[in-house]
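USER: Note each token:
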Amino acid sequence: MSLETLSALYPKATKSKNEAERLLEQFELGLDRSIALQQRLSAILNDFCRQVTELKQVLDKLKSSKSIDRSQEKIWDRRIDNLVSDSNSLRESISKQLDHIHKSQIEEQKKLSYSSPEKNSGVGALIREKAIWQESHIAIDHALEQARSIVFNLKNQNRMLKSVRKKALDMASRLGISHSLLSNIERRNLVDQILVYGCILLTSLIFITIYLFIHYVYQKKTKE
């Protein structure tokens, strides 16, 4: 890992950010709200978040190995922090836009289903069924988006904790702190890791429960 690696990754992340912003602008202005654009927007955003995470990992390794001087470290810290902020902002904006358009589509479908003279016919039933599926789709998409955001933030926090832990252990060894205290620090780090992965597991269980509940409601509405 070297500064050249950071210099090579940074333009790619910036390019992904600019592309995501361009597609989001098209979507917000109503120039293109197709399914294809929505899928491409989500893919570009995921690439951008992955590239930001990779940049942060490379910088952390350079810091740990002391392969970067203080002035360069500050510059790259600021650049990567800005990219992290941009990725969070983009994720929130895209989630709001997709949620809004999906809700509008569902409301339109509901109006058609309840105002149609074929309300009690097979066509009306199909329209209502489609509306219910779209509601489920929105809820699941929203849950997945929140899950991605939570996992992304947890990974960043975990990397920060590892970096702080390593610095603390290095400082402790230099100061000659007892082995028992270092062992306590190690145990605390293990507890922190268990809490992080426990939160991820709990979040996953909550989303699975939401999905099963929506599926149950759909079956109940279908029977009615």
Notes: The chain has two domains: 3-115+126-173, 188-223. DSSP finds five helices and no strands in the chain. Confidence is low (pLDDT under 50) at residues 116-120. The two ends are 62 Å apart (CA to CA).
